[in-house]
Design a protein that fits this description.
473 residues; Jelly Rolls; TIM Barrel; 2 domains; binds beta-L-fucopyranose
C-alpha cells in the first residue's frame, strides 16, 4: 500500500523548536539516572522484626529475640528474583521500627543481638554479586527506637548509619528514603538534614541514585502500580516537593496510598513547564507489593485485613506493561517469610507472572524500516535508532509476520521529546498515544497483520530521537 500524502506535522499548533522547547529538552538525565533507567524492573525486600510480629509498622520496642529466621538464605532470594528477570534488589536495612539488619556500631538494636546473629546486608551483598544483581538499600529516616530521634544528634546518627551502609557493602545502585515521618520514642518529630544525607551518599556512592525523598528518582504517587496516562520525566521541582512527598506518603500502619498524587495528573505538559525555572529530570518509579502488605504475613492476616494475599500473576503482568511500558520503572516487593525464605505462595505467583512476561517478549518479528517525510516520501536511512530531521515525521515498518506487542523507546540521553504519536496499520489508525520516554509498550491482544505499519509522531519537542522499535509475536 502506498503511503498517503496526508500526514500532518502541525505539531498540534505547538512550536516544534523555540526557546522554551530548547529549555525543556536541555533537561537531561545524569549518568547515574541513565544507568538506573536501564534496569526497568527490580525488587524490594521488606524484612525485619515485623515479619515475626505480623505488623506493617513496628513500634520500636520489639525485643531483638523475636527476629529468628532459622533457614534464611539470601541465595534463594536472589535465585528466585533473578529468574523473574530482575536487575536488582533493594533491602530494608532498617525500617521505621529502627531494627537494623546490618551490624551497626551506633546502636545495639540490630540483627547481631538476635538469635540469627549475622549481618544480613553483608549476606545479601555477597549473593547479589553471585547472581549479578545490583544492590540497593532502604534506610528509614523515621526511627521509632532511637532515643536521639527528634534532636540534631539524630542527624549525626543517621549520617553515621548511612556512611556504614555506603562504605561496607560494595557498590550500591540506590539509596531509598520513604516519605513517612512520625514521632520518635520521645514523642518528638525529626527535622531531617536531607542535604547532608545526600552529600554523604554522593561522597561514598557517587553512582547510586537517591530515590523518593531524594533528587534522582520520583515516587509515582501511589503504591498500587498505577501510572499516569502521560508520565513525564522533565518536571518542575520546588522546595515544597519533599514536603509534598511526606504529606502524601503512608500515614497509618495498614493504609498504603493508592492514589496518584503528590503531583496530580498532569505534571509535565508544556502548560506545567511554561515559565518555570526549576526544571529537573525526574524519572518515575512505581513501588508495589506482590501481597497487599509490605512485610510477609500468612493468609489469615489478609482475611482479617484485606481479604486476599497475593496479587494475581495477571495483575502483576499488567502492572509491568503499564509501568515499564509507561515511562516508569517497576519496583516489585517480595517479602521473605518467617523462615527467611521466599515462600512457595510467592514463588507460584512469580513463576506465572514471569511466564506471561517471557511469552510476550519471546519472539521478535523482524521488519524493514524506512523514515517518512511530510509529503509522503520515504527516505532511506532505515535502521531503528534514528533522529527525525526537519520534515521527517515517522517510520514505516514492513513486518514479516503478525505481531501482538509493539515496543518503542526514545533515546532519553537527549531528553524526553515525544508528546503524541499515532500508529497506523495499512493506513488505518490502530493506536493513539502520548509520551514515549524510556519505553512504551502497546499491546494488541488479537494481533496485527498488515503490509505496513506507520508510526507517526504528531507532536514533539524538537526532533524526536527514537532509540529502538520492536515487534513481538
Ligand atoms: C512507606 C512505608 O511506610 C511502608 O512501610 C513501606 O516501607 C513503603 C515502601 O514505604 O512509606
Amino acid at each position: 500500500m502506498k503511503i498517503k500524502n496526508a500526514w500532518c506535522t502541525g505539531n498540534n499548533g505547538f512550536p516544534v523548536y523555540d526557546e522554551e522547547v530548547k529549555r525543556y529538552i536541555s533537561v537531561r538525565p545524569s549518568e547515574r539516572q541513565l544507568a538506573f533507567n536501564r534496569m526497568k524492573y527490580y525488587n524490594f525486600i521488606h524484612f525485619g522484626v515485623n515479619t515475626f510480629t505480623d505488623r506493617e509498622w513496628g513500634e520500636g520496642n520489639e525485643d531483638e529475640s523475636v527476629f529468628n529466621p532459622a533457614e534464611l538464605n539470601t541465595n534463594q532470594w536472589c535465585e528466585t528474583l533473578k529468574s523473574t528477570g530482575s536487575k536488582g534488589i533493594i533491602l530494608t536495612a532498617k525500617h521505621h521500627d529502627g531494627f537494623c539488619l546490618f551490624d551497626s556500631k551506633y546502636t545495639d538494636h540490630t540483627v547481631m543481638k538476635s538469635p540469627f546473629g549475622k549481618d544480613i546486608v553483608a549476606l545479601l551483598s555477597k549473593s547479589c554479586k553471585k547472581y549479578s544483581l545490583k544492590l540497593g538499600l532502604y534506610l528509614s529516616p523515621w526511627d521509632r527506637h532511637e532515643k536521639t530521634y527528634g534532636t540534631d544528634e539524630y542527624n549525626d546518627f543517621f549520617v553515621n548509619q548511612l556512611t556504614e551502609l555506603c562504605t561496607s557493602y560494595g557498590d550500591l545502585f540506590c539509596l531509598w528514603f520513604d516519605g513517612a515521618c512520625g514521632e520518635g520514642p520521645n514523642g518528638r518529630k525529626q527535622v531531617y538534614d536531607w542535604e547532608r544525607y545526600y552529600k554523604t551518599i554522593r561522597k561514598y556512592q557517587p553512582d547510586a541514585v537517591i530515590a523518593i525523598t531524594g533528587p534522582d528518582v520520583r515516587w509515582i504517587g501511589n503504591e498500587g502500580g498505577q501510572v499516569r496516562k502521560s508520565e513525564w520525566s522533565v518536571i518542575p521541582w520546588s522546595d515544597k516537593t519533599l514536603d509534598e512527598i511526606a504529606e502524601n506518603s503512608q500515614k497509618e500502619e495498614n493504609n498504603a496510598p493508592n492514589f496518584i498524587d503528590p503531583y496530580a495528573e498532569d505534571i509535565g505538559s508544556r502548560n506545567k513547564l511554561s515559565g518555570k525555572t526549576d526544571l529537573r529530570w525526574s524519572p518515575a518509579e512505581a513501588d508495589v507489593s506482590i501481597t497487599h502488605g509490605w512485610f510477609w504475613h500468612d493468609d489469615d492476616y489478609y482475611k482479617d485485613n484485606k481479604g486476599g494475599s497475593s496479587r494475581t500473576p495477571e495483575e502483576l503482568a499488567q502492572i509491568y506493561f503499564n509501568t515499564v511500558g509507561g515511562n516508569a520503572s517497576m519496583l516489585l516487593n517480595v517479602p521473605p517469610d518467617k523462615r527467611g525464605l521466599i515462600s512457595d505462595r510467592e514463588i507460584k505467583t512469580l513463576t506465572e507472572f514471569t511466564k506471561i512476561i517471557k511469552k510476550t517478549f519471546a519472539e521478535n518479528i523482524p521488519y524493514e524500516l524506512t523514515l517518512l517525510t511530510t509529503d509522503g516520501e520515504e527516505v532511506i536511512p532505515g535502521s531503528a535508532g534514528f533522529m527525525l530531521q526537519n520534515n521527517e515525521i515517522g517510520a514505516k515498518l514492513i513486518p514479516t509476520a503478525k505481531f501482538r506487542t509493539l515496543f518503542i523507546e526514545e533515546d532519553i540521553k537527549y531528553s524526553q521529546r515525544v508528546e503524541e504519536f499515532e500508529i497506523f496499520a495499512d493506513g488505518k489508525s490502530i493506536y493513539k498515544g502520548t509520551v514515549i520516554g524510556s519505553g512504551k509498550i502497546v499491546r494488541f491482544p488479537k494481533g496485527i497483520e498488515a503490509d505496513e505499519i506507520c508510526i507517526i509522531i504528531t507532536q514533539s519537542r524538537g526532533n524526536p530521537v527514537i532509540k529502538s522499535i520492536k515487534l513481538y509475536k
